[in-house]
Amino acid sequence: MITLFDSIKKQKLKFEPISPKQVRIYVCGPTVYDDAHLGHARSSIAFDLWRRLFLFLDFKVIFAKNFTDIDDKIIKKSLQNGISVEEVSERYIELYLNDMHALGILRPDLEPKATSNLPQMHEMIEQLLQKGYAYKGENNDVYLSIAKDKAYGSLSQRTTHEQNQSRITNANDKQEESDFALWKGYKGEDDIAYDSPFGKGRPGWHIECSAMIEKHLAYDMREKQEYEKQEFAIDIHAGGADLLFPHHENEASQTRCATGRELAKYWLHNGFVNINGEKMSKSLGNSFFIKDALKVYDGEILRNYLLGVHYRLALNFNEEDLLQSKKRLDKIYRLKKRIMAERIADSIPQTKALDSTELADQLESLNTLKTHTKNAQDSFIKPLLEALSDDYNISKALSIIEEMLSISNDYLDKNPKDKAYKLAISGNLACIEYLLGLGDKDPTLYFQLGLTEQERQDIESKLQARTEAKKQKNYVLADSIRDELKSQGIEIMDTPQGSTWEKI
Ligand SMILES: [Zn+2]
C-alpha cells in the first residue's frame, strides 16, 4: 500500500490510482528566463523519487513537466539582451535539461511548452466564456470570475486578495480585484502577441497548465467514453509549496469550471530550500544556481544531499551538511567497490542509468537494472519499500540502507569469499540505484571525482612510474612517488589486480 500526504486534505491518504496500475503525474516546470536554482533541483528530485518508486512497483507512469515559455520575465530578458523570446527560452530550456541530467533526474515523458499549446488554451478559455465563468475586459483581456466558482479556495483555504497582482498590468477592467487573467490583450510594442479568438495577446500563466493537462494527460491518453466519466483529470499534481496559491488554486478552478471535473486526485507539494545568507558557503558564494553548485560538487553528491530531507520539509542548504551526507554515498560506493574488486561475476549491474538524456534509453537502463534487483535480500528491500511507500519516509529508508551497508561489511569481513552473499548485495545496491538514483558510477571513478582530466592523467603517469620503479626494485623512488601523491591528497591502493588510487 502506498500512502501520500495530500496537501489539500492535509492528511496522509491511501493512493488509489484512477486506472489500475497507472499513474498520471504533472509537475509545474520552470519559467525559462534564467538558470535553474536549488529550489528547482529539490522539486525535481522529490518527484523524480516518487516516479521511480511507482515505476519500481510496476505502475505505468505518465510523467509530464511543462516549460513556461511565455512570460513577462522572458520578454524582459529578450529586450535586455536584444534577442528574441524564443532564443531566451530555448537557451534556458537547454541549460535546465543539462542541470537535470547532471542531477540524475529521469527525463519526463512529456515536456509541453506553452507556445506549442495555444489552441488548447484558446479552447479552454472559450469553454469558460461560454459557460459564463469568464468575461472579457478591455483591450482583449479575458478574466475568470472567481465568484462564479463556488469551490474556489478549496485547495488553499484562501479566496481573495494577496493575488499575484504583479502579473496584471491593467486591473481596471476586472470586475473583482481577485479575478485573474486567462488571456492578456496585447499592450504595445514591448509586448509579444499571438492571435486568438479573443484578439491579439498572450495567455495568463495559470491557463497553460490546465489546458496542457486536459489535452495531453486527461484526453489524449484515454478512450472517449472513459474520458467522459472521469471525476479527475490526473492522479497527482505536484510542485513547490509556493505554487499552492494562487497558481494551483487557479489551475484547479479553471479545470473545474471548464470541464466539470477536478484537476487532480492528489496534490503533492515539496518544501523550500533555505540558504543561510552570508553563512552559506565559501566555495559556492551565495549562489542559488544549480550550475554553480555543480562546479564544486558532482551532481550525484548534490542529489544525495537534497534527497536526504523529507520532501515536504524545508531544507536549510549548507555545505557542512552536504559534506556530512556525502559520507553515506561514499559508503555505498565503498561497498560496491568491495564486491566488484573481486570480479565475482558479470551479474553485478554495470548500468549507466542516466548516460543518455533520451527517456527511452533511460527507461531501458532501468529495466536492465530491475533484473538485478531480483537478487536483493528480502530483509532489505521489503522494509525499504515499506518506508518509501509511507509518504516517502526518507529518514527511515536511509537508516535501513545504512544498516544494510554496515551488516554487509561485517559479514564480508568474516566471509570474504561468499559469492552468493555478494550477489545479494549487488541486488541491494541495484535497488538503491533504481529507487534513489544513487550509485550508478564506476566506484573507482567515483573516488576520483573532483579532478580535471589533466590532473587525472598526471596521477596515472606517476602511478605508472611507481609500478615501473617497483619492478626494478627501486623502492626508494616508489615510496617517494607514493608520498608525493599523498601530499596532493591522493592515496594509492595496491591490489592483486594492480594499483589504483583515490582522492581522499
Ligand atoms: Zn502549473
UniProtKB/TrEMBL annotation:
Keywords: Aminoacyl-tRNA synthetase, ATP-binding, Cytoplasm, Ligase, Metal-binding, Nucleotide-binding, Protein biosynthesis, Zinc. ATP binds at residue 282. It is found in: Cytoplasm. It catalyses: tRNA(Cys) + L-cysteine + ATP = L-cysteinyl-tRNA(Cys) + AMP + diphosphate. Zn(2+) binds at residues 28, 209, 247, 251. It is an enzyme of class 6 (ligase). It comes from the Bacteria. A motif ('HIGH' region) lies at residues 30-40. It holds the Pfam family tRNA-synt_1e. Residues 15-326 form the tRNA synthetases class I catalytic domain. InterPro entries: Cys-tRNA-ligase, Cys-tRNA/MSH_ligase, Rossmann-like_a/b/a_fold, tRNA-synt_1_cat_dom, tRNAsynth_Ia_anticodon-bd. One of its GO terms (molecular function) is cysteine-tRNA ligase activity. Its EC number is 6.1.1.16. Binds 1 zinc ion per subunit. A motif ('KMSKS' region) lies at residues 279-283. Belongs to the class-I aminoacyl-tRNA synthetase family. Monomer. This is Cysteine--tRNA ligase.
